[in-house]
Every structure is written in structure tokens, then in C-alpha cells.
From TrEMBL:
Membrane topology: Multi-pass membrane protein
UniProt xrefs under Pfam families: MBOAT
Name this polypeptide is given: Hedgehog acyltransferase like, b isoform X2
Domain of life: Eukaryota
Main location per the UniProt record: endoplasmic reticulum
Residues passing through the membrane, by range: 6-28, 110-128, 149-169, 189-211, 284-306, 327-346, 358-378
Listed GO MF terms: acyltransferase activity
Coiled-coil annotated spans: none
Localization per Swiss-Prot or TrEMBL: Endoplasmic reticulum membrane
Organism this protein belongs to: Lates calcarifer
Keyword terms: Acyltransferase, Endoplasmic reticulum, Membrane, Transferase, Transmembrane, Transmembrane helix
Low complexity: bias regions: 405-424
Amino acid sequence: MVYGLLAVWTSMGWTYITLILSHCILLYSISLVKIRWLCFVTGLCTLATFKCEPFVSWQAGFVEGDFELRHVLFYGGCGFTIMRCMSFALENCERKDGNYNILELLKYNFYLPFFYFGPIMTFDKFYVQANKSDLTRKERELWNISLQGLIHLGVVIVVDVLFHFMYILTIPTDMKLLKHLSDWALVGLAYFNLVYDWVKAAVMFGVINTVSKLDHLDPPRPPKCITMLYVFAETHFDRGINDWLCKYVYDYLGGKHENVVEELVATLCTFGVTILWLGPCEVVLFWAFFNCFGLNFELWTAKLFSMEPFASFEMAMSEAMSRRIRAIFNTFNFWCIVLFNVLALNSLDFAKLVAKRLLLKGFPITTIIVMFMTYCLIQVIKERERRQALIDDPDPLPPAPPPNAATSPTGAPAAPAAAQPVADPSKEKAE
């Protein structure tokens, strides 16, 4: 904690430390009341002061100096501080006996590897890991950490080369140039924009996680590769923020995520907090709307196909056929995810141009070829996930007992029961 305070003071000045401490003290004081909604509203209002004028300009004046990363460090440190303080306050509300010490909050917030850029560990996980007494390491753990550090260093160099020589982020801003590109080049550019952004996030969080593992912490993993995302429920570029939102908003309001109305309320509130976190603007609002719709549409589709006669149709199919049909739907899902996130990373005009070329102007040749290649990719991903599921849980699921076995008379032979559809264990594991 002391080292983190000194590092932030050295880089940003004592007035910035004062600003951060004032937010910590405010949310700590509110947490002592132990009213969950009050802690949440206070945290969101505090977060809004970094997104709305004149509060932004006034608080930005607390930063000393005029160096290149000034605004990045200012908004990163303040934004993550509010989210960490909210996590602390909400966990303190759940604590039955007493309150957490304010020193625990300061130690949690000023842990230097996580301070400016995250990822966010919820306070309950950080508290347990930071206070554990057993600090022994597994065999070859230090070797694996060192190897990960070298890999991330190499990827940093590759990302820097791509950024300077391949113009992945610059080309989408030139609409005149984009109109002269072929359909294939445009679709590939949209895909590689997401891949590039994922690589940046994976490298940044990978480096931070490597350092934190030296302190015996188990931080949130880097985001899942964009190539393997074919469902909206797994789409995120910051696993820490995703875990935070799921724990305190999405799962808290959505329950088991079986009721359509509860799911709609949970997703609306989740994306509402996300909009405030990212900063309300036209692009963010469009991005949130489409992703919120995609997440709910997945639930609606799953509920529809779990009803009769669709459920009986799927149980009559083989595992391979069921996976093929699901892969067809996931193919369209994949490109919806790509287009919706390209909208946030680049611009609305670029996303509209890619959608027009892929679905309208490129139809049927470009559309069919791209969708077929995506379909094959998703089949490979599903097979990989199926094998990994069997490795993680090698024991097959036991079949359900016949429903009429216990009620048949003991003296007379039991009548043959009607054939019941038995769930295929491998199919359940795969899906």
C-alpha cells in the first residue's frame, strides 16, 4: 500500500492523491451504513463526475504536470478507483459481523499493478488472496511466470510493429480509400481490427497479471480470443470489469437467467452501468443497444428451442447433427459480434460499410464464402471445447432412472415402459 501511494504521488502529484483519497473516504463512509442501493447510487454518481462537465475539468485540474500519459493515467486511476471502492462497499454490506477496516480499502485500491489499468479483482477475492498465510509455490511456478513474461515481451514488440507499419487503425478512418477496397479486404480489415484490439488487451492484462502472480495473487485472466467468440454471453475485452458487472448487477438482478423479464432488466441495468463506465456518447449507445439486444435474443432463442416440438427434434438427432445446426446460428452470431464491436472501436460509417458489403453488395458469392468459412471455424472451436470439457470432467453423466420403475407392482411383471428420450452425456458436455 505504501509503495503504491508513493508511486502514484511521484507520477501524478499530491493533489491527485488527495482527490483519490477523498473518493475512497466518501464511499467507505457510505459503506458503514450497510445499505446496498445507497452504496451503488453513490458510486455511480461519483463515477458520473468523471464523465460530465464541469466536474471533469475541475477534477482534471488536480493533476500536476503536462506529460503525454497525463489524461490516460488520470481517467484510468479515477475510474478504477471508483469501481474498486464500490466493490468494497457492496462487500461490506454483505458482511454480517462488523465492518472492514479502511486500511483494507486503501491496500486494495492502491495495489500498484492494478491501479491505473486494472484488471479489477472484486474485493472479496482480493481480501482472501492478499491475507492468506500459505505463500508456498507450486513446482515450476516461477519458471512458468518467467516464461509468460518473456512471451508477453515478444508480443509487445510484435504489436508495436503492427501498429506502426500496418495501419490497422488508420485505414478505417479514410472512407474514400475504403470504398475502393474489395469486399474481402474490407471484411478482413474489420476482423483484424478486433483481433488487434484483443491482442492489445491480452498483452496489457497479461503483463499486469504476470507481475501480480509474483505477489501470490490469482488475477482475472486475459479476455477470450475474438476468434473463439460466437455467443454474446462471452463477449468482453476486460474480464475484470465483466466479472464485476456479473457479480454486482447481472447475476444479482437476473437470478438464474431463466425468466425473460428478469433477464431483460438485468441486461439493461448492466449495459447502463457500462455506458456510464465508458462515457455516454452516440457510438457507445449504439454499441450497448445492439449488444444488449444480442444477449437477450440468445435467451429468447434458447427458450423457444427448449419448448416442444423443438426439444424432441433435437433429442432425436445425433450429437454431430445437433452441433451442425447450432453452428449455423452461431455463424451469424459471430459476424453480429464483429460488426457490433467494430462500431465501438472505429465508427458507425465503417460498420455500416462492412455490413453493406458483406450482406448486400457482396451477396451471394462473398456472403456465402465468408459464412461457410466461419461455419467451419466454429465447428473447429466447438470440437476443441468438447474435448476440453471431457478432459476437465471425464466422468459421464449418469442416465435418469426409468420413471415407472418404482411404481410397478412387486408381484406382477412390470409392463415395458414407453421409450423415454435420454440425454446424450457428450452432447450435454459439448453444449
